[in-house]
Amino acid sequence: MNEKLLEKNEIRRKIKGLRLIMSDESRLTAAEEVFDRLEKTAAFLLSDRIMMYHSLPDELSTHAFLSKWQGKKKFYLPRVNGIDLEILPYEESRLELGSFHIEEPTGNDITDPSEIELVVVPAVAYDRKGRRLGRGKGFYDRFLKSTKATKIGVAYDFQLVEEVPSEPHDVAMDIVITQSNTFIISK
Predict the structure, then answer these.
(1) Are 132 and 126 in contact (CB under 8 A)?
(2) Can you give the pLDDT at residue 5?
(3) Confidence band (pLDDT; 50, 70, 90) for 148?
(4) Smallest Cα–Cα separation from 152: which of 125, 179, 182?
């Protein structure tokens, strides 16, 4: 096993442990704080077509945010298709359990990634340079290469680490938002 993979797995293990000890109340408060910060960014204010994620229990919850902005912004969600992500319009009534036990949109109205203006990206960890550590399957990195959209990573404060080991195929974020900070990454 290479050193970067060992390092990534150690970060994943540590973050998982920190997530497990969070109370439901602190999870909801953190999500409110992060998404309040997101709403104040120029990238969000100026975007109409936004790809979100439908959060898993261990991720920063997007459910209240999606409900709040539904009808004011056009949201899209990813759906796993083989090794890639397809992007479909978000409608609460069109979700069903898909790959990896994630609720995904149904239908055939796949959206071209070039139509997306902003992508809000979950992760296991981020660093201040916008580098992202995902769950290890590469779905988001493959998708992010196909879009020119602004990329915003959202995370709990403890998901911000000193350095995320990166590979040539990794795609960095333009902005990283935690409960306490908004980092605008200069490229």
Answers:
(1) yes
(2) 63
(3) very high
(4) 182
pLDDT for the residue 3? 64
For 133-155, give one letter per residue: b (16+ CB within 10 A) or e. Answer: bbeeeebbeebbeebebbbbbbb
pLDDT reported for residue 30: 97
| pTM (2 d.p.) | 0.92
How far apart are alpha carbons 52 and 130 in whole angstroms? 18
DSSP string, the chain: --HHHHHHHHHHHHHHHHHHT--HHHHHHHHHHHHHHHHTSHHHHT-SEEE-----TTS---HHHHHHHBTTBEEEEEEEETTEEEEEE--GGGEEE-GGG-EEE-SS-PBPGGG-SEEEE--SEE-TT--EE-SSS-HHHHHHTT--SEEEEE--GGGB-S-----TT----SEEE-SS-EEEPP-
Q: How confident is the model over 49-83, as pLDDT tens digits? A: 999 999 988 899 999 999 999 999 999 999 988 88
